Each structure stands twice: as structure tokens, then as C-alpha cells.
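FAQ

Q: What does a record look like?
A: Structure on top, sequence underneath. For example:
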């Protein structure tokens, strides 16, 4: 993206203007606030510069155009026509004097049109050069039809007086289109023949030539020669609703239909004589709102229904290739907010978000429909990629001899180790020997010690190397028949797990002197095994060990391998989740808090503890869910933070864990499918990191700012409603499917479950086909209602009504004209029924409801908000809904929700938000019923 600019208001149309004697275009923008302006691109500042602002200050007293607002520009660039009001055309001119070429005249000329419902309009190419406008309009309100009318924009030859658009005097041509559902008009430029043609009054026998327009219908294509008034018609093999078009050249045009099919419309000619119109399918794309041909076979498809696309069109083979996708989350039909990080907490609610909060929204329409997870995340800016490096088992960064910064990357594979060296300019070279490292086996740990020595740990040996000459200084080997299954090191110790049953610590400052501990004596148990180990980098003599059977961790003294403190992580005896990775780091500034222990569990949770520096006791346990499988914890030095580290957790949704204002932030990261991370602060790439995936290795920078990240689940159906169940860890979604069956449109609704973590469909969809007529799902809500045994059971309630709400064990439904409170009862384990308790009829139509206790907020279609209270049945009286307050203003409400106390939030159709408050303590009953 080159640049962007904020516009205050909804943009209704964009139009390109080319002023006289200029090489650059102007952009004309119209908004819904009756404000219009022209802007140009300034290459010096790389920004849009406003040239002229035009505002219609008159009070709007005319009816809006029944079709979309339109702006037409004369091919000569002298005139512009806007169709904003029903039966009215606004005509503007570009300046004709020197110095005013880039400015529009402030005075508008308005003329009345007899064509009220305009379906499409365009300027028509003419032999005379006089601006001429063609309208495709509907002549009747009750019945669909299509008529074509052509007028001259100016009534005189000097183009000074705007035509009156009188059908009886000024209409130059009219034609009834046989396809009543025609909605597109395409201008076709004039192609000069060797013999110039002239206008004749008698056009009998004249042949249609290039230079006119095409009317596109659902079943018919019509070409009109605007000079000879000759018509060429061509029927379509199968009907289609066309929604957008773009010109490729004088005889080829791209057409997109409502189902996302991209077609090529070709004018078949003999010389310049039009003989036929043909239509061929190019491929399937997003449902287009506009098409723009950018040259060189590139076609931009802009969509309001899903992702926009950039396509490469091969005109010879008639194939399309997707070059780029521009993601769009609009339109959002419904959404649910989920804090995945708090999913593992036993406490109810947190004062702050864990950093893993996300919006799961139903986005797009029809075949562009999808469920999307939207979150604020830390971005990674890729610097380079090492391709064809698969099945990586470890990444380590080293310093070569005499280098002040790291310049070497060690990559461990299943059967070997490879070395890549980087020069100060960023050049890369693979080397086949490096300071005596063993490269014929996988490496568990490789690091450069502060004194320059090199440490390598493999499955059988621990080796200290002298970096200058690459000679071996010390070696420790495991006993025969055993192997090192896990290893971790800091600047003083190497901690090893031998066959998962024996702990060994080696002193790096004392010639790898060993201290051995077999499980069962002081730590672990005779039947237990080691699941993970960690040697703390900020506490030289402290390590952490995790165990399989007990699901516990122990903090140990690396000098003696004695346990300093133990903690059971799994909270229930039948839990199968065990610690799989550990990290003990100084996450917070040392003057605020001590070290923090992170434990990655097998089920995707990461448990954190504050560690006391005095007795190494653990406190302030918190649990965050980062994925469905265990996370890999990779310690990264924090840039600019001396002695402070961050942690990069690699799961299916990677996260960066860091400290902010004394709190632990689990910020989602844009890295997907990352398995290993290594810091790489080199001269060429300061503060960079290396990331390994299943396919390659990338070097990247971590962005300082968070940005929006979207993870889509394409469903190719409209996701109408979304409801979230924390207990099931799933979303319940109601979808609407539309497809063509034997040229007949079939609409069906269904309900399905989606997993909250991997965002994948669970099980098969439940189709809502119990009714003989077509019912589209309008609402889905999660509820806890009594089952046949009287116990609360979780249910997803699906309705064809407009909105649903839960009031304790009762269901509140907003129907077409009333709000009804139901009671749900299960007579058996296989049957249930809804019993009506009370009803309330609002002024017009309840578009949305929200429930707080016994109070129900109702958003009315035209009459703003009404607040009603549910009174249960008592003393032989039936339950009822009683109006308590109302907002006495004409507001087209769209949504309502309760904030706190007596305050409610309401949204209207104009995009406004308002807070309404009921005052039950007002002195009079009339004041109490008014919401302010």
C-alpha cells in the first residue's frame, strides 16, 4: 500500500478525472454527508492532497435515488453528472480557463428527469463529440421492466446550456429491452473504418458498427449502435445476474455475476460491423462489487462480500490465476468475543485481558462466507528465507572466534547438523566444518560461552571446544546403552536427562565434573520419569525438572541436584496433562518482581508462577491456553532490556510472552506453524530471530507494535449468527447456504460446531429442514436450561426469529411483531417443548433484544428503545411483561446491549452510538418512564 487517508463519512462513489493539459488524474470523492472533494497524489510527500472541497449546504428535501448514487464523467473530461436524488441530475463542469483546469465550478446545475428509477447510466461515445447520456430505467413501480433512453447533456453546439431532458423533445433514442431484469450498460468506443460513415435519417438496412453501448440482462445481451440505432441481440445459454464489468479492449469486456463467476463478453465483428455477442466463462472468484482492468492482463476485483483479488487473465487460454488476495472482514453479520488466554483459569473473569482475546466473527456473504478469528498480535517482518530445509529439530546461534556478535546459525536435523555462516553485509554461506563441531549427528544444545569456549551436546556426548583452533578441551560421554534425551545449559551448568530416569549436571567451569541423581532418592519417584528439564539462565545454580506420572515440577540445585521446592501442576488426579517444556526467566524488571517460571502443559496450557529468590517457593499461579497441543518455550533477550527476557511460545497460534507494567502479556504473533526459534543479534541483522517451520527457515524482525491478524475458516456459506460455549470450547454457528440446482436458486440453513482453538468444523452440520417452507436462521444463542432430570444442561438455541436472549432458565425471543418469554421443558431425554409465558408488542418491529436480570431492552425498528420488565406469575396471576421506560425519539435502531446499572447502549442505522439511562428515582412517574 502506497498510502491511505481518513475520510469522515461513508464514501458513496469514487471517480477519476483527467483535467485539460495535465498528465495526472484527479480523484473525485463523494460521501453520505453531502460533502465532495477532489484529491491528487503528491509523489514528493507520498500522500493524497486535497485540491477542492465542495459541500451541499442545502437542506435535503428530495427523495434519495432508489438505486445506488452515481457519478458519470464525460469522456472528454469537461463535464460530470451526479445522480443523487430521485428524478434529479446534477451537472458540474471542470474549469476551462488557465489556472482553473483542476477545479470544478462551484455552481451546480440541476435538471429534472422523468426517468425516476434509474438502473444504470453512462456517457455514450458519439461521432459529433457532444456529451451524450444513456439511461437504463424502470418505467413502472409494480412491475419490473427495462427501457433505454439517450439524451444529449447539452442542448446547444457550444455546450453552454444544459438540456432540459424532456422525453418528447430532447430524447434522441429510446428502446424497450426485452429482458426486464437488465441492469448494466457498457459503452463501446467508436472504431474508425477506412471509409468514414455519416449519419443518415433513413437507417433502413444499416448494419451495427462499433461505437455504441451494450445492455446486459440476465438472459439477453443487446448491442445498440447509437448512430444508426441498429440493434444486435444475443441470448444467453444459462441465466445469470451480472453485477460488475470492466473493459479489456474495444471488443472484449469482463463480466462478473452474483455467484462469483467471471465471464468474458466478446463483440464478434467483421471489420467494424458487429455480428454477434458471445459470453465465455473464465473462472470462479469472489463476488465482485467492481472490476478494474489494470493493463498487462491484470484485473483487480473489489468485493464488498469477501476478499478482494488481483487476477492474471490469459486471454489465449481463457484462464485466470490468482496473483494476490486483499483480505476483508466485511461485512460482519455477527461476532463473539473470546479470551482464549483465560480459558484455563479457575477464577471467574480477570481485571485485564490475557493478551489472547480475539473476536470471532461471521464474515462475508454466500460463497465468500467465512468464520474469522480477529486478534491484535505482534507482527513478524520477514527479512529472508532459507528454502528446502525441512524436519528441523533445533536452531542455535553461535559466535565465531573474535566476533563480538553472533554470526553463525546451527541447524539440527534428524540425522545431521548443518552450519550457516553470515558476513557483516548479510551474505550467507554453508560451511562444512566449524570449530570442531560434530556434524554427523543431531545436536541437542549448541552455545558459545562467555569465555569464548563452544559447548555442544549430542545424544551421546557433551563436548567443550576451543573456538580458535577447534580442539576438544573436555568430553563427557554417557554410559553404554544409554542416551541423552533432553539437555539444557546456562553459562555455568549443563543439565541432562539420561533415558528419562537419571539427572546429570555438568560443571562447565570445572572440566565437566558430573553430579548424578537417579529418580526416587530425593526427587521424583521410583515409578516416575523426567518429561522436561531447564537450566535457568538468570539463576546460575538453579534448574527445573518436570515429571510424567505426577504431573509436577521441582526446582533443583544444580550443584547437588537436591530438590529446593516442588509443585504439582495438574489440578485433578485423572488429568492426563503433564509438563512438556519449562522456562525460568527474569521476565519483569528486577526491581519490580523476581523470576517467573513458565510450564508448558501437554494440553496447550501454559502455567506461570512467581518464584521467590529466598526459598524458591512458587506463588501466583495463572493458567493461559495457547493452543491444543504443548507449546515450545524459547527464551529471547528483550531488546533494550538489560537482564530481561521475553519468551516466544510456538504452537498452532504462536505467542510472544513479555512483561508490561508488572503484568504478563501473552500477545498473539503472526508466525504460523513455527516449531523452533533462535535469537540472532548479528551485525547485519540486529535484534533478529530465526524461525523454523515444516518447510523452511526464516529470519525476521519482531515488530515493536501490535497489529491486527485474521485467521479465516472458509465455509462458502453466510455465517448469520455466532454463539460461544466456554464449557464445550466451541462455537455454535448458524449458516445460510445458497446454490443453483437446475438453474433454480435453493436456500438452506444449518447449524454446526467449530472448535475454538484450531477454528475447524467439529462433526457434521445439522440441517434445519423441518419446515415445508424456506426458513433462514436468524439467531443462535447458548443457554443453560434444565434437562429431563432437572439438572442444568447446555443448549444451543437456534431460531428463525430476529433475536434471542436468556433470562435465567427462560428464553426471550424477538419475533416479527412481538417479544415473547418462553419456558423450556424436557419431558424426556429425547423431547422438549417451549411454553409461552408472556408477550409484549413494541411499536413496530423488534430488531434486537438484550437481557439484564428481569429487564429486557428492546431495539425497535423505528421507535428507538423500550425497556420492559418480566413479572413472574404469582398469587394466581399470569406472568407478564410490563413497560418501564422508553426513549421517545424516532431512531432507526439496529442493536442494543446493557452496560451497567440503568445504562444501555444503542446503535442506529446511521452509524451512531448512544448511551441511554433510565432514572427510577425521578420525582414523577412520567420522568421515570423517559430514558435520557
Amino acid at each position: 500500500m502506497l498510502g491511505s487517508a481518513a475520510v469522515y463519512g461513508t464514501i458513496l462513489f469514487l471517480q477519476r478525472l483527467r483535467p485539460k493539459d495535465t498528465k495526472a488524474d484527479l480523484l473525485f470523492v463523494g460521501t453520505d454527508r453531502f460533502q465532495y472533494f477532489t484529491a491528487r497524489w503528491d509523489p514528493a510527500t507520498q500522500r493524497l492532497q486535497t485540491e477542492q472541497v465542495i459541500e451541499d449546504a442545502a437542506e435535503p428535501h428530495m427523495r434519495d435515488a432508489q438505486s445506488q448514487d452515481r457519478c458519470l464523467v464525460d469522456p472528454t473530461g469537461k463535464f460530470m453528472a451526479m445522480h443523487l436524488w430521485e428524478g434529479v441530475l446534477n451537472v458540474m463542469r471542470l474549469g476551462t480557463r488557465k489556472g482553473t483546469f483542476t477545479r470544478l465550478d462551484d455552481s451546480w446545475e440541476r435538471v429534472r428527469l422523468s426517468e425516476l428509477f434509474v438502473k444504470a447510466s453512462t456517457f455514450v461515445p458519439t461521432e459529433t463529440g457532444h456529451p451524450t447520456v444513456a439511461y437504463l430505467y424502470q418505467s413502472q413501480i409494480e412491475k419490473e421492466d427495462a427501457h433505454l433512453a439517450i439524451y444529449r447533456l447539452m442542448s446547444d453546439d457550444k455546450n453552454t446550456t444544459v438540456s432540459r431532458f424532456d422525453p418528447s423533445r430532447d430524447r434522441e433514442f429510446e428502446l424497450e429491452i426485452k429482458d426486464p431484469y437488465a441492469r448494466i450498460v457498457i459503452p463501446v468506443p467508436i472504431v474508425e473504418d477506412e471509409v468514414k460513415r455519416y449519419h443518415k435519417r433513413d437507417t433502413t438496412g444499416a448494419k451495427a458498427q462499433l461505437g455504441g453501448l451494450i445492455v446486459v440482462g440476465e438472459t439477453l445481451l443487446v448491442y445498440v449502435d447509437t448512430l444508426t440505432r441498429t440493434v444486435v441481440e444475443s441470448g444467453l445459454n444459462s441465466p445469470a445476474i451480472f453485477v460488475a464489468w470492466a473493459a479489456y479492449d474495444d471488443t472484449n469486456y469482463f463480466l462478473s455475476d452474483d455467484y462469483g463467476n467471471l465471464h468474458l463478453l466478446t463483440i464478434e465483428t467483421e471489420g467494424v460491423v458487429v455480428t454477434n455477442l458471445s459470453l465465455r466463462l473464465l473462472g470462479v472468484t469472489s463476488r465482485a462489487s467492481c472490476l478494474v482492468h489494470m493493463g498487462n492482463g491484470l484485473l483487480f476485483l473489489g468485493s464488498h462480500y469477501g476478499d478482494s483479488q488481483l487476477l492474471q487473465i490469459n486471454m489465449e487460454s481463457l484462464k485466470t490465476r490468482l496473483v494476490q488476495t486483499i483480505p476483508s472482514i466485511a461485512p460482519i453479520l455477527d461476532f463473539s468475543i473470546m479470551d482464549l488466554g483465560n480459558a484455563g483459569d479457575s477464577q471467574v473473569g480477570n481485571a485485564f485481558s490475557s493478551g489472547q482475546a480475539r473476536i470471532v466473527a461471521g464474515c462475508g456473504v454466500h460463497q465468500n462466507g467465512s468464520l474469522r478469528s480477529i486478534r491484535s498480535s505482534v507482527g513478524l517482518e520477514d527479512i529472508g528465507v532459507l528454502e528446502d530445509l525441512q524436519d528441523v529439530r533445533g536452531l542455535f546461534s553461535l559466535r565465531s572466534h573474535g566476533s563480538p556478535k553472533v554470526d553463525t546459525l546451527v541447524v539440527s536435523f534428524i540425522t545431521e547438523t548443518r552450519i550457516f555462516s553470515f558476513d557483516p553485509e548479510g551474505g550467507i554461506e554453508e560451511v562444512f566444518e566449524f570449530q570442531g563441531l560434530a556434524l554427523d549427528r543431531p545436536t541437542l544444545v549448541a552455545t558459545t560461552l562467555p569465555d569464548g569456549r563452544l559447548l555442544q551436546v549430542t545424544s551421546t556426548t557433551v563436548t567443550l571446544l576451543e573456538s580458535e583452533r577447534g580442539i576438544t578441551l573436555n568430553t563427557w560421554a554417557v554410559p553404554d546403552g544409554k542416551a541423552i534425551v533432553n539437555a539444557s545449559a546456562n553459562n555455568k551448568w549443563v543439565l541432562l536427562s539420561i533415558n528419562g530416569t537419571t539427572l546429570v549436571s555438568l560443571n562447565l567451569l570445572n572440566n565437566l565434573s558430573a553430579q548424578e541423581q537417579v529418580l526416587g532418592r530425593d526427587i521424583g519417584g521410583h515409578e516416575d520419569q523426567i518429561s522436561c528439564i531447564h537450566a535457568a539462565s538468570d539463576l546460575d545454580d538453579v534448574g527445573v525438572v518436570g515429571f510424567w506420572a505426577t504431573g509436577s515440577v521441582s526446582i533443583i540445585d544444580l550443584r547437588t541436584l537436591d530438590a529446593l521446592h516442588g509443585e504439582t501442576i495438574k489440578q485433578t488426579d485423572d488429568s492426563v496433562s503433564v509438563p512438556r517444556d519449562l522456562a525460568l526467566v527474569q521476565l519483569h524488571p528486577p526491581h519490580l518482581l523476581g523470576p517467573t517460571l513458565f510450564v508448558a502443559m501437554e494440553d496447550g496450557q501454559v502455567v506461570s508462577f512467581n518464584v521467590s529468590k529466598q526459598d524458591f517457593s512458587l506463588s501466583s499461579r495463572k493458567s493461559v491456553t495457547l493452543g491444543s497441543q504443548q507449546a515450545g518455550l524459547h527464551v529471547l533477550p528483550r531488546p533494550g532490556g538489560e537482564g530481561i527476557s521475553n519468551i516466544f511460545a510456538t504452537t498452532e497460534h504462536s505467542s510472544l510472552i513479555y512483561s508490561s507494567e508488572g503484568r504478563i502479556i501473552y500477545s498473539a504473533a503472526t508466525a504460523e506453524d513455527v516449531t523452533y526459534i533462535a535469537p540472532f543479534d548479528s551485525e547485519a541483522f540486529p535484534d533478529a530471530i530465526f524461525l523454523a517451520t515444516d518447510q523452511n527457515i526464516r529470519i525476521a524482525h519482531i515488530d515493536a507494535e501490535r497489529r491486527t491478524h485474521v485467521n479465516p475458516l472458509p465455509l462458502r456459506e453466510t455465517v448469520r449468527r455466532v454463539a460461544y460455549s466456554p464449557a464445550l470450547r466451541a462455537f455454535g454457528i448458524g449458516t445460510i447456504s445458497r446454490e443453483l440446482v437446475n438453474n433454480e436458486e435453493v436456500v438452506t440453513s444449518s447449524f454446526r460446531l467449530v472448535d475454538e482453538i484450531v477454528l475447524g468444523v467439529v462433526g457434521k452440520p445439522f440441517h434445519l429442514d423441518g419446515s415445508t417452507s424456506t426458513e433462514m436462521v436468524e439467531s443462535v444463542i447458548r443457554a443453560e436450561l434444565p434437562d429431563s432430570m432437572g439438572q442444568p444442561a447446555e443448549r444451543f438455541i437456534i431460531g428463525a426469529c430476529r433475536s434471542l436472549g436468556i433470562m435465567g432458565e427462560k428464553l426471550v425471543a424477538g419475533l416479527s411483531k412481538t417479544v415473547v418469554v418462553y419456558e423450556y421443558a424436557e419431558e424426556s431425554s429425547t423431547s422438549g417443548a417451549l411454553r409461552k409465558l408472556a408477550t409484549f408488542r413494541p411499536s413496530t418491529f423488534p430488531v434486537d433484544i438484550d437481557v439484564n436480570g428481569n429487564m429486557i431492552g428492546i431495539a425497535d425498528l423505528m421507535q428507538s428503545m423500550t425497556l420492559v420488565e418480566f413479572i413472574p406469575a404469582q398469587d394466581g396471576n399470569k406472568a407478564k411483561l410490563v413497560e418501564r421506560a422508553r426513549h421517545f425519539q424516532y431512531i432507526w435502531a439496529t442493536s442494543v446491549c446493557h452496560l451497567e446499572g440503568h445504562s444501555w447502549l444503542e446503535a442506529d442505522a446511521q452509524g451512531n452510538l448512544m448511551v441511554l439511562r433510565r432514572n427510577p428515582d425521578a420525582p414523577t412517574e412520567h420522568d421515570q418512564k423517559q430514558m435520557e
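Q: Is there anything notable about this one?
A: Residues 344-353 have pLDDT under 50 and may be disordered.
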